[in-house]
Amino acid sequence: MKTIIEATDTDPKHEVELLCGACSYDLDESEIASDTCANCGTKLNLKQNTAIHVTSIPLFATAEI
Ligand SMILES: [Zn+2]
C-alpha cells in the first residue's frame, strides 16, 4: 500500500510503501491490520519503503546577504 505524504516546510513530498518483510508483498490496509501476511502466511513483519519526490525541491540554496 502506498501513501503519499504532501510536502511540509521541513519535509519534501514523499511516498511510503508498506510491504511484507518476508516476501515484499504489497499489503493493503486490511491486510496490514492482520497478524499474518496474506501472501506468504508468515507472521507479519512490516517493511517500509520511502520514496522522496525531489522534483519540486530547489537544487541549490541561495545565501542571504
Ligand atoms: Zn509475505
Structure in words:
By secondary structure, the protein is mainly beta. It has one domain (2-52). Helix content is 6%, strand content 28%. The protein is built from one helix and three strands. It has one helix at 29-32, and strands spanning 2-5, 14-20, 46-52. The chain has a three-stranded antiparallel β-sheet, with no helix packed on it. A hairpin with an 8-residue loop joins strand 1 and strand 2 (14-20). Bound molecules: zinc ion. Zinc ion binds next to loops.
The span between the termini is 45 Å
| Helical proportion, percent range | under 10%
Task: Indicate the proportion of strand residues.
Answer: 25-35%
User: What integer value in Å does the Rg equal?
Assistant: 17 Å
Taking the sheet with the most strands, its summary is:
3 strands, antiparallel
Kindly give the count of domains.
1
Number of helices: 1
**Uncertain segments of ≥5 residues (pLDDT<50)?**
none
- Order of strands in the sheet with the most strands? 1-2-3
Q: How many strands in all?
A: 3
In short:
This protein has 65 residues and is mainly beta.
How would the blueprint of this fold be written?
Blueprint lengths: L1 E4 L8 E7 L8 H4 L13 E7 L13
Antiparallel strand pairs: 1-2, 2-3
Bound molecules: zinc ion.
Question: Which features characterize this protein?
Answer:
65 residues, mainly beta, three-stranded antiparallel beta sheet, 1 helix, 3 strands, 6% helix, binds zinc ion
